[in-house]
């Protein structure tokens, strides 16, 4: 699940990079502006980002637990 979320975050980040630099939305270009596939892809990228937040906090919790165990 972590790998899938990371791939989705990378896809989203690259798409935002293209939008920011070239004003070009790759997802819209491939699938259409309001197509079901593009909407699903946007939702999946968003869920991947939420999962990334969870991974970030899990990492911080583990780090904190390791620091407490070392004391």
Keywords for this entry:
71 residues, elongated, mainly alpha
What does this structure look like?
With 71 residues, the protein is mainly α. Helices cover 87% and strands 0% of the residues. The chain has helices at residues 2-22, 26-31, 36-70. It is elongated, with a radius of gyration of 17 Å. The model has no long low-confidence stretch (mean pLDDT 89).
Rg measurement, Å: 17 Å
Count of discrete alpha- or pi-helical segments spanning 4 or more residues: 3
| SS-derived structural category | mainly alpha
Largest beta-sheet characterization: none
What oligomeric arrangement do these chains adopt? single chain
Count the strands? 0
Given as residue ranges, the uncertain stretches (5+ residues, pLDDT < 50) are none
The amount of beta strand, in percent, is under 5%
**Average pLDDT across residues?**
89
| SSE arrangement, N to C | HHH
User: Could you estimate the helical fraction of the residues in percent?
Assistant: over 70%
Distance between the termini: 33 Å
Shape estimate: elongated
